Amino acid sequence: MAVKGFNAFEMAQKQFDAVADLLELDQPTRDLLRTPLREYHFSIPVRMDDGSVRVFRGFRCQHNDARGPCKGGIRFHPQETIDTVRALSMWMTWKCSVVDIPLGGGKGGVICDPHDLSQREQERLCRGWMRVLAHDVGPLRDVPAPDVMTNPQHMLWMLDEYETIHGAKYPGFITGKPVGMGGSLGRTEATGYGVIFTLREALKELGIKIESTVAAVQGFGNVAQYAIKLYTQLGGKVIAVACWDQNDQASYTYRKKSGIKLEELLAITDRFGGIDKAKAESLDYERLPGDAWIEQDVDILLPAALENQINGETVKRIGPKVKVIVEGANGPTTPDADAVIKSRGIFVIPDFLANAGGVTCSYFEQVQCNMNFFWTKEEVLSKLDDKMTAAFKAVSELARTRKLYMRDAAYVISVSRVANACKDRGWV
Amino acid sequence: MTNPRTPTTVDTLFSTLHERAKELNCLYRIEEILSIYDVPLEEVFRQVIEALPPGWQYPECCQAQITYGTDVYETPDYEETPYVHCAEIRVQDAAVGRLCVSYKKPTPESDCGPFMKGEIKLIHSIAERLGHFILHQRLRGMYEQISDQRREAGGGRRSWRIALDLLRNTNPTLLLRVSRKMMNYLGWRGVPEARDLLQRFSGAGVADGLFGESNLPQTRESLDRFVQLTEETFRIASANLTDDEVFDRIQKWINEDRSRESVRALENVYAGLPEVLDSMRRVKILAPEGIELPRSLANSVRVALIRRFFTEQLEFINVAKKYVDIEDFFDLSEKIVFPPGSHGKLGGKSAGLFLAGRVLAQAARRTKAIGTVKRPKTWYVTSDGLIAFTSYNNLDDVHEQKYKDIEIVRQEYPHLVQVFKNSTFPPEIVKGLSVALDDFGDVPLIVRSSSLLEDRLGTAFAGKYKSLFLANQGDKQQRLEALLDAVAEVYASIFSPDPIQYRAERGLLDFYEEMGIMIQEVVGTRVGKYFFPAYAGVAFSRNEFRWSPRVRREDGLLRLVPGLGTRAVDRVSDDYPVLVSPGQPNLRVNVSTDEVVRYSPKRIDVIDLEENTFMTRDLSEVLREVGRDFPALTKVFSVYKDGLLQRPMGLATDWTSSEAVATFDGLISASPFMPQLEAILKTLSAAMGVPVDIEFASTGTEFYLLQCRAQSQAAEDVAMEIPANLPDEAVLFTALKHVPNGRVADITHIVYVDPDRYGDLASFADLVAVGQAVGKLNKLLPRRQFILMGPGRWGSRGDIKLGVRVTYSEINNSAMLIEVARKKGNYVPDVSFGTHFFQDLVESGIRYLPLYPDDEGVRFNQKFLDAAPNRLAEHCPECAGLADALRVIDVPEATGGRVLRVVMNADQGAAVGYFAPPEAVVRTAGAGAAAVGRGDEDPQRWRLRMAERLAYHCGTQKWEVRGVYYVEPSDGDEADPASPLRLVIHVLGGARQRKELETWLQGWSLSLAEMNYFRTGFHSDGLLDVRFLTDERVHGEKDVAARINALSNAVHELPLRPRIP
Fold it and tell me: Is A177 an active-site residue?
């Protein structure tokens, strides 16, 4: 809508162009990958609780399905724009490709504010969305999942409508379902564990024993908690954790130089990863300012909270010992910080590789649903390990052989896989 | 319990209480006997005789005797002794018998011979009760006879004649009154003969003595005339009315007459509370089937009772008299504790609840949705209990407290609480509370204030006075002491700084504040060692915090919590109540699972019966402890699993291991609760004629109303008058859509994110940086004195271009959040209504307003926002790069000393933000009111306030001061803590008086300098700069200004206390 200023889709295209240059992609391939293959724009009339009708605007972008069915969330947002959806669908294509799962990229949304809608109205909206698209999505075409302001409940309504229309059961059509309704075990652990699988492989390649490493973590939510769990199981020591304090509306870093104990911290942590300040202090944790995690004397930094945390300013405070930064959060590092990190020779495991455990587990959910047979948690996690390890190795090998920065290598590998698939199919 | 009372006092108290209990038992037994009307009189007398001795101090040698006419009833082996006390049994002022109690042998000397005071009183009360009983038996007999005869007479033909005969024989006075009424009735009906009759019989002699209330024997001559009157009246009646009609009239009047007598005392405004209660008891006894009064009389009694028990306020009386019956006061009257000779009232909270209960009971017959609304068992201490308490303890000085300086009030308050808690209560109150405790048993109690000021229609002291919970466990003595302790503490709260300041601000300081006490059973159930209701909360009939344009103001607002409602009433910083709009229960504040979980209540207030105390616990811990026993479990909680919140399904849920979230989903969407609440709010606000708020609690099955009053509004939430005719350059913006009530005053800074330029920012990093810069400004700018204005949705996680990405912590110091929705082509973007941190805004009182600058009739001063100097770089040098999109405007700088004020009026749906001088001190009539102020107030405001006090006292002295004028400081001095307080005093006294005045002023000057030092840290040798005018005449402020060479509007005349001649 806006012609000037920041545009998420333009940014995604620019990023692609840069990688395409590295890959020296031909023009038709560039043209094909710069924009989504298919876009659906449609209206969804919804009967409101008071009897009136409101019409909502819905979208679905299928960016590329050369490697397999499209995969991506459905967002409910009052300020949804098609450009955001386009950009996000493209990023999904790269994300699936970097961990080498046979899926393409998609994204969808509806312009609406769920705060203005009752549950019943939301249900009708979900079913309405599905009635429009029932023949253009499906377990073998395009697989949705929950995203911004949508939850498993919305997905179940949509799945139910889809199955009603097609007259059969297709649990593999949607992921992010609750366990017992076709959801996969291991989902909670997947992202955090995935982060550490890649870290383990990185340390191996760098010739560092994980047992001798010390780490500082930003964030204490689901991802950070499971990452710390696996990392300490493997012998590593976390000495600092930064988290948000809801009461003080501020963040703090909790430090214990002898190594934090995950279980004792979990016992004093709320549902949102907030650690009880007083109790932590009584357990002999030092309470430091929220951004102190970054300047700790550690080997590994694991930002697993918000974006833009390592920026032009904070990057200067990174300790001299730091060897690896593994990005658990989305976009924790700004481009100017990246330049510094690159020059200091710190090894970075980029976000869309490091935190791809989540999307991999969604893929596993789909696989299990399609064969209607469900694995144990151990099985899920061991398959996750295989996938993440392989993905990491491929990226790092490319980085090493082509002397690329890890972030660039990850993009290069994912775009090249998609481009190859398009070529193999004879599209370009 | 913290009150160490001496054992001797307590021992005496308990032995007195023991005797009192015996007397009461005796009285109760007698009441029980006399409550059965079918028993023949002889049997009743026999039972009463038996019941009497155990009530006396020495029951083993106590005997009793009743003489009625010629019959005598007595205890076995009754013997005449000199140790006797007798009381007459009187019916309609004639002695019909005698009740005697005596001892067979001498006993130790007591108050009156062998008897105690209480015992003497008891004999008389019982004799009086017997008299009433006999009267009632007689009247009832008569009434039944008439009905029987009427039935026998088949269709009533002539049966009224039998009734008249009967009256003639049993109660000639009543016959006369009935005849007179019939005469009047016929007259009104326009029967010509009746008019003649009326004229003949309305002669002075007849009217005076005969139709009045006198029961004196009449002269024979008159009697003849009555007989004649009766005969003639009923002859005319039978000629003009049907037999049934005549009979119905007679019956009605007999009934009314029976009631009239008894309610007479209730109407007496000057009667003390004990007398009123006594008459009520009598009414109840005399008219057990309900009283029948003519409408006018019923109305007047009703109003008299409302006034007596509750308030003189006409608004309240007007509403209450429509809903309240005389009988409704009976229950109330039995649960009142009062000092001797009380003229006290029960207070606002009691009144509101009582009235609401009646309104709902009536409306429930028509509106099924209201269902059953209960009120918890309640005892009351009358408002003069406080006076009795303070004077009993010689604490009368405490009533001066409100005129002291607020800082002093604040300092002294903790000591005052201790003094109160260590004082003793007058014995009558102790006795009364002891009886109340017996009535309650050991259920937890809440002691609440019910002041005469509190909760009046129009002023609501939301939570200004104390309410205290008592677990009420342990033996009687412990429980009584805890109760007394709590009452003392609530009494003390009337003298605490907050209410005093609040009253000062509203000009209510001089109102003679009395405080009633309400002692209520806490609604709840015992679960494990805890006691709490399933859920409780407050509900408002007007919703001033709408989170969606679909929620209307009249849809109401509900704040709901599990357990005791304290957490819903007060804003607590670390927790959230569930917010629902009863008119739109499906439009929830929080939608995503994350939001719902984040903003769900995490803690619960309970009474711990083992610890004997009120406490706050983690909800999850309590749930783990009590598991399935948590009342209304499935209505309160949802189960969180895999990102999904589900209503629990009966037995399938393991509560000790599941992750439960208090969503109230079951209650809101699968029970009749929301329609019930909506109906209650609508009914109450319609009846009261104003928006209301209520407090309630539910055991899970039963709904209890705990409080009802005119909707309270924080000072900042009142509907503001929108100033008219503001010039364009003084207006920053106006709004006509989605406007709440309230005001935001004295804004010194505007943080403005220009929607267009923000949208033009090319890099994602810059867009993020704007949010971060706002976060920095939030910490740098003066707290609550800046507002944020920006495009679309503050805090949105969606397209960053359409709203600045901030978290709550990055805006939490602002006073107001404004979302500007500028038209883009044909499209106006949505605003968020602050949904991203809606509950945080509500709980912290940050106001929200959406603006639609492109709507018709809306003003938006883009020119000012563009042209005012941008102070971003000064405040935040590292943000300077964003100066194009982000502007920080120093309002006084840009407007020549003015500040921004936003006033909003939801009734008119209009708001305006305009530039105005900083708020001047509110001038109140009495200097007393102005004497109170805030510790952090503006230096000039403080100066003016001090000047007012000084002026007030000046007038009382004999210095011939004719006027005191306050001179505003010149512009440069305004903020200077050292600037003197300039006064001009017009004085006519002689040299000696002048000298005295100067000395007095010197004292003030030094004191003020000292105070100024404490306030500002600035030393000076005196703060006053006084000029005297000694001319005979001074012509007001302008004249003074001219004489001292000041600006004409810089001089203000201050009120003097009128000199006592």
Answer: no
